[in-house]
Design goal:
Layout: E1 3-8, H1 12-24, E2 27-32, H2 38-53, E3 59-62, E4 73-76, H3 92-109, E5 114-117, H4 122-133, E6 140-142, H5 145-160, E7 167-168, E8 171-172, E9 180-181, E10 187-188, E11 191-192, H6 199-210, H7 212-220, H8 227-241, E12 246-255, E13 261-272, E14 275-279, H9 286-303
Parallel strand pairs: 1-2, 1-4, 2-3, 4-5, 5-6
Antiparallel strand pairs: 7-10, 8-9, 10-11, 12-13, 13-14
Helix pairs in contact: 1-2, 1-8, 3-4, 5-6
């Protein structure tokens, strides 16, 4: 029996996530949105692409949360998108009500599912969904570090004019301006970038990574990034559905690792059939550890605004 993944929110991120998932041909896909008939139209369009692309998945579009029944995973992309000049934190209270409603429906119709949060502010909304759902913490996690690391990889490839597929990167911390790129754990064909790029250029690339989402928001003018966030979400869903035991940075619940406790923040994890199966503790230099803890402290403060 095929797995079932529901995507909440049929906007640019959600629709592309549904498309990438269908292309993987590994799960049934349900696309849910509150806009009347729109998800049904996108679902039908994606289904009709199947014979051309070569997948056998029918994408069901719906306005009814009942259609997520028995989902193995629910990917939450719903919420307000950032506008130019708006930080992820500005979205906090506006999106908290949306995420509460979505999460309550997940609990009602898909109580055994994993929740993959994509809505911003990512780390805070992941915590919010975990608190509302009361699901075990390993079953609720956020897509942040995969996207941030992908941006870091892209900028390193552009800097060195090499294949992106040869680059591995690790970006930890909150999904925002306080994220922590780790050059010492970023390699090109196994070679640390500290051996290939000057410290000045590494810092410039790191800063561009921190501002990567805002750069795209500024360029688009009427929305935020969606191709890369959708693909990052798909990679994480595949890791769980196929029990791939991927080592990826994700927003996970810290219980003392790196001196952080009681909140969701971007950390290196093993992602498999049990969701977040393990948080890996890397050796960080003093500056990186301090930056990670500072990022966590920022999000801890914002949790108070949500009443936690």
């Amino acid at each position: 029996m095929r797995k079932k993944v529901s995507v909440i929110g049929a906007g640019n991120v959600g629709a592309n996530c549904a498309m990438y998932l269908a292309g993987r041909n590994i799960c049934d896909v349900v696309l849910v949105d509150i806009i009347e008939d729109m998800p049904a139209g996108k679902g039908l369009d994606l289904s009709q692409a199947g014979p051309l692309v070569g997948y056998d998945i029918f994408v069901q579009g719906s306005n009814d949360f009942a259609d997520i029944k028995d989902s193995d995973m629910v990917i939450v992309t719903s919420g307000l998108a950032r506008k130019p000049g708006m930080s992820r934190e500005d979205l906090l209270k506006a999106n908290a009500d949306i995420i509460r409603s979505v999460t309550e429906n997940i609990v009602k119709y898909a109580p055994n599912s994993y929740i993959l949060m994509v809505a911003n502010p990512l780390d805070l909304m992941t915590y919010h969904a975990a608190a509302v759902s009361k699901f075990p913490k390993n079953r609720v996690f956020g897509q942040a570090g995969v996207l941030d690391s992908t941006r870091f990889r892209t900028f390193v490839a552009m800097e060195l004019n090499v294949s992106m597929s040869d680059i591995q990167a690790m970006v930890l911390g909150g999904h925002g301006d306080t994220m922590v790129p780790l050059p010492q754990y970023t390699t090109v064909g196994g070679i640390p970038i500290t051996e290939l790029i000057s410290q000045e250029r590494i810092e410039a690339i790191s800063q561009r990574t921190r501002m990567g989402g805002g750069e795209i928001v500024k360029l688009l003018k009427t929305g935020s990034a969606y191709y890369a966030p959708a693909m990052a979400s798909t990679q994480m869903a595949e890791a769980v559905l196929l029990d791939r035991k991927r080592v990826l940075p994700a927003s996970a619940y810290a219980t003392g690792q790196y001196g952080i406790d009681g909140l969701y923040i971007g950390l290196p994890v093993v992602l498999g059939a049990e969701g977040v199966e393990k948080i890996l503790e890397l050796k960080l230099d003093d500056a990186s550890l301090s930056a990670l803890q500072k990022s966590a402290a920022t999000y801890k403060e914002h949790l108070g605004e949500l009443g936690y």
